[in-house]
């Protein structure tokens, strides 16, 4: 198991578990990915990238410091069903300690695992280029391309940034009444209002598949799709959600490191800091 301690931890911070408010769970699951492999190296690469960032966010005037404990990498069994159980159990343990869990992946299936540790009234806001609403992929129900469908069986799902799905998937989304914001154009104020109808006053979990972004700013993903969102837009949407709902967990997933070009990991690390800062600011 890979440990991230001291200089090797997220933001290079040694934070005592007891004192930490947030527990970062690196989840190197890469079992059911269908196109380009390599998301199992996402967590370590995001943590490495975080060490080049400042703790201070000038826009929010907030210092992300001494609040995040970096856990060792979860040991993921080779069977997807068992892997999901390990994730569910680990997230439950963090919640039992009354700490705020968040994960870095790893394939998107990790979100389904985490969802099983939360109550049924938690709304899952999922940023993803893909609807992930497939019924059965390669003979298995548990697959990163069926993540949203699986979560939607138990929890309300909202999708943002979708631009890759089949006609059948689209019909199924409509049938299942999944609020879906396609990536055809900018996210407008009227979209924010529509989104808030589903999230305001609710407990919310945010899941960010890095392929929601345009491949020009996040090329290091397993299944890139043209025409994605930009960073400022995603950050704005999250800011709006954080204002009037209670965030209970989040994850950043599907990072597939490319080596020299690590802008995807930098973006992932920055998003984590943004979300933590937004939660803390909105508590005040
Ligand atoms: Mn995706």
What does this structure look like?
With 284 residues, this protein is of the alpha/beta class. It has one domain: Ureohydrolase domain (Arginase, Chain A, 3-Layer(aba) Sandwich), CATH 3.40.800.10. The protein is 33% helix and 17% strand. It is built from eight helices and ten strands. It has helices at residues 42-50, 80-96, 109-115, 147-152, 167-175, 189-199, 231-244, 263-283; strands at residues 22-27, 56-57, 62-63, 68-70, 100-105, 123-127, 157-162, 179-182, 203-209, 246-253. Strands 4-1-5-10-9-6-7-8 form an eight-stranded parallel beta sheet, sandwiched between helices. A two-stranded antiparallel sheet has the order 2-3. Helix 1 packs across helix 8, helix 6 (189-199) crosses helix 7 and helix 7 runs parallel beside helix 8. It is globular, with a radius of gyration of 17 Å. The model has no long low-confidence stretch (mean pLDDT 95). Bound molecules: manganese (II) ion (MN). Manganese (II) ion binds at residues 108, 128-130, 209, 211, 223, 254.
